[in-house]
Amino acid sequence: MTQPVQLRVVSVTAETDAAKSFRLRAPESLSYKPGQFLTIGIPSDRGMVARCYSMSSAPHEDDVTITVKRTPQGFASNWLCDNVTVGDTLTALPPSGNFVPPAQDADLLLFAAGSGITPVMSIAKYVLMQTDRRVALFYANRDSAAVIFAEQLRAMSEDHPERLHIVHWLEELQSLPRTADLQRFASVYPHYFAYTCGPEPFMNAVTDALHSLGFPSDRFKREVFLSLSGNPFEIDEVVSGPGANLARVKGSCNGASFAFDDWPSDVPLLQYLLSKGVDAPFSCRNGECGACCFQLIDGTVEMECNDVLDSYELAEGYRLACQAKPASKSITITYA
Ligand code: FES
Q: Where is the 2Fe-2S ferredoxin-type domain (predicted)?
């Protein structure tokens, strides 16, 4: 399912003075992985703008919950916190994102700061409720009043005393966490998979700490908050520039085959396939989320931007449809 979905707000909870959780009733067809985000449409003077919000719920829960923290200049987060009430409907693109727990049976080392706890909470709930893995969480905040999910985390600790270890770090008492502090915490869990979400300086300090302890990069994920420049809800018409060459593309998506022969060399594959009525997956349309990933079987494409795929994935033929333009006459692809 890649079309926008309508989500009815069934409850609004103030988590702190600045953060609210919105519990949303989703269609049954909407599925997601712990740690993923929703792209929500927000009305504005300029029409619809899109913002990504991580889910704090886990897939085994009945409803989907996003948790939103106000920021001083945050038009969308302030609009949600000020305007959205029970009974309202939000428009969202299907869940997306790669900040998800590994498939293998690994224990998790989680680092969160401020509202970075949101996807981390989703992951922690899933791992504790649906697996027998262990979780260690380092959670940094300015002061105790800013701790989102304080009560839920306390209850989770009581329910899973052998499997969940939480350290709350309060800046007003301990100053900002330094690399050495994070290193000391992480050194107890050298074989865990590490995840971090929060402000960039915090994630950089976590990265430094893990590198100094020799954590390999395939056992460490950082969540990057997306700032979308375009509007992924709008499907642009395909208008090819003068002199654009046309390529053939064939493949399959969601079990349906397609074959077209007029893909302009200056148009991204995603835009082209959507204009042809193919139900191709996407979310950010900015090369930042990975939702549009496909595999190249034959031919060549060039990508303008790629903040998602690593060298291993590129070598396996994975590419981003929102960024890929044809660089050969004939291209064959598939969506996993
Ligand atoms: Fe997000 Fe292409 S839609 S990377």
A: 247-336
Kindly list the protein residues whose Cβ atom lies closer than 6 A to any atom of ligand 1: 282-292, 308, 320, 322
Nearest atom, ligand 1, residue 283 CA: 3
The fold for domain 108-223 equals Rossmann fold (3.40.50)
C-alpha 57, offset from chain centre = 13
pLDDT tens profile 282-325: 887 888 778 899 999 999 999 988 878 888 789 999 999 999 99
CATH no. of 5-95 = 2.40.30.10
- Which superfamily does CATH assign the domain made up of 246-334 to? Beta-grasp domain (3.10.20.30)
Q: 78: Cβ–Cβ under 8 A, 6 or more apart, which residues?
A: 70, 71
DSSP-derived pairing of the beta strands 246-253 and 330-334: parallel
In angstroms, the Cα distances linking 136 to 132, 166, 193, 195 are 13, 6, 10, 10
Q: Is 87 left (phi over 0), alpha (psi -120 to 50) or beta?
A: left
> Are 317 and 39 spatial neighbours (Cβ–Cβ below 8 Å)?
no
Atom of ligand 1 minimally distant from the CA of 282: 3
The pLDDT assigned to 169 comes to: 98
**Residue ranges of the domains in the chain?**
5-95, 108-223, 246-334
Widest CA span in the chain: 66
Q: Do domains 5-95 and 108-223 have the same CATH topology?
A: no
User: Which residues make Cβ contacts (< 8 Å) with residue 314, sequence separation at least 6?
Assistant: 306
Centre of ligand 1 from the C-alpha of residue 287, in Å: 4
d(CA 317, CA 300): 10
